[in-house]
């Protein structure tokens, strides 16, 4: 960080002051955030009570756009569906992208909170479903607005271009790709760095976690269409039963993780859906398996996907299916790679957060599941934009201690709004000021 020191020039008696601005004093930023908390709290309550499903974030995006325009940002709407960018130019310097995701989940809120969602919406299949911000995206948007205000207030202390981005459909792992495909970077140019955060219930509110490497696993969706030969349920010998072949495939997939991948390497294959048949006395001609595949490295990801295809095809061969009727294994294009921070950039961000919030605000990263993100798809330029994705705790310590907390995507998921908003805004503003600090 530059402190705007004075430089003595070589000429005697002549002292030149650097025109670089001074760093923002820590207490000034803290007080400025504190003054904004009541407004941000109201915004959070509004967003929480009005969740919208993936790719239907119309009112949410409009609210976010309006909030950012009110702070003087130039907003472009409707990128990749409901996506938006809000730009602030502040002299010559690097370009920083800060992303918040906007979508909610088809989950029925059962927290009993006064501001709980009662919203129901039509999903993409035309079914009416309950909707809830069960993944803290309401916090992410609220803190984006908070950061927008702090960066305007602190514009004497940074230089460059700040681009705040509202992304649709993170939960479908498709919104980031949709924005890129819709010409996001043709509109804004190539950012030098990118930042994003997620509210995480396993960490206490007030704490920040910045890892110098892996943050989330890769995620791929694989569909196996198992073909059979239809026949009467009482004459199985005259056909080939895709329910039995599909069941064998489900079991044959399990040893991929336990016998093929190193026991020291995390890997996951979950068959989440198995659909076949309509009547007990009919052997149908098709079964469909939908699978999620997770890995922590690209090589394990490739190995898992290849093994799934091999197991599916050869299980059908072993059941006597002809070569013309082997299963079709489709890897969906919605897959996302691992979320892995640029180590050097992560160190800079962590040091800036430690300097501004105290080193006890930081906790070590640990992995407790194989969750994934589509943020890497947003920054997947050639070469990729270096990024830091960090986590902020959202649960009061006493709830962590007595176990009365719920994971994201749960009907009972809840965040402690004030300390979570305060910490998210504070940490993200410190990170942005660090990356846009003048030379
Ligand atoms: Zn989620
Ligand atoms: Zn999320």
Features:
single chain, elongated, four-stranded antiparallel β-sheet, 439 residues, Alpha-Beta Plaits, seven-stranded mixed β-sheet, Aminopeptidase, 2 domains, binds zinc ion, alpha+beta
Task: Write up what this structure looks like.
The protein is an alpha+beta fold and 439 residues long. The protein folds into 2 domains: 297 residues, Zn peptidases (Aminopeptidase, 3-Layer(aba) Sandwich); 114 residues, 2-Layer Sandwich (Alpha-Beta Plaits), CATH 3.30.70. 34% of the residues lie in helices and 24% in strands. The chain has 11 helices and 19 strands. It has a 7-stranded mixed beta sheet with strand order 3-4-8-5-9-19-10, sandwiched between helices. A hairpin with a 6-residue loop joins β1 and β2. α1 crosses α11 and α6 runs antiparallel to α7. The longest helix is centred in the first third of the chain and has 24 residues. The protein is elongated and about 80 Å long. The N and C termini lie close together (8 Å). Bound molecules: zinc ion (2 copies). The site of one zinc ion has 4 residues, from loops.
């Amino acid at each position: 960080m530059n402190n705007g020191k004075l430089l003595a020039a070589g000429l005697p008696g002549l002292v030149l002051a650097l025109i670089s601005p001074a760093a923002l004093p820590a207490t000034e930023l803290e007080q400025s955030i504190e003054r904004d908390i009541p407004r941000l709290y109201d915004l959070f309550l509004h967003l929480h009570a009005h969740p919208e499903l993936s790719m239907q974030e119309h009112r949410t995006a409009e609210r976010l756009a309006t909030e950012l325009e009110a702070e003087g940002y130039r907003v472009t709407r409707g990128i990749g569906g409901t996506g938006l960018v809000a730009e602030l130019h502040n002299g010559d310097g690097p370009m920083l992208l800060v992303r918040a995701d906007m979508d909610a989940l088809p989950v029925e809120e059962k927290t009993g909170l006064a501001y709980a969602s009662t919203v129901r919406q039509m999903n993409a299949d035309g079914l009416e479903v309950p909707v809830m911000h069960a993944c803290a995206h309401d916090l992410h948007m609220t803190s984006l607005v908070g950061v927008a205000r702090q960066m305007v207030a602190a514009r004497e202390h940074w230089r460059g271009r700040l681009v705040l981005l509202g992304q649709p459909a993170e939960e479908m792992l498709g919104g980031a790709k949709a924005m890129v495909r819709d010409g996001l970077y043709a509109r804004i140019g190539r950012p030098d760095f990118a930042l994003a955060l997620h509210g995480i219930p396993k960490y206490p509110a007030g704490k920040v976690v910045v890892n110098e490497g892996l943050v989330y696993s890769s995620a791929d969706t694989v569909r196996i269409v198992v073909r059979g030969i239809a026949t009467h349920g009482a004459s199985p010998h005259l056909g080939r039963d895709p329910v039995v072949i599909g069941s064998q495939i489900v079991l044959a997939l399990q040893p991929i993780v336990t016998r093929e991948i190193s026991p020291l390497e995390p890997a996951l294959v979950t068959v989440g859906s198995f659909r076949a048949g309509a009547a007990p006395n009919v052997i149908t001609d098709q079964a469909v398996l939908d699978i999620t595949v997770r890995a922590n490295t690209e090589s394990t990801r490739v190995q898992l996907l290849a093994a799934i295809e091999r197991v599916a095809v050869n299980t059908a061969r072993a059941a006597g299916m002809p070569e013309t009727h082997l299963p079709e294994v489709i890897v969906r294009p919605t897959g996302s790679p691992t979320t892995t921070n640029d180590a050097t950039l992560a160190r800079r961000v962590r040091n800036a957060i430690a300097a501004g919030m105290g080193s006890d605000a930081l906790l070590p990263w640990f992995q407790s599941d194989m969750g994934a993100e589509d943020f890497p798809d947003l920054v997947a330029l050639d070469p990729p934009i270096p990024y830091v994705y960090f986590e902020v705790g959202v649960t009061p310590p006493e709830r962590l201690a007595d176990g009365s907390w719920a994971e994201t995507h749960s009907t009972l998921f809840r965040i402690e709004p004030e300390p979570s908003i305060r910490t998210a805004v504070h940490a993200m503003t410190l990170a942005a000021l660090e990356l846009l600090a003048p030379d």
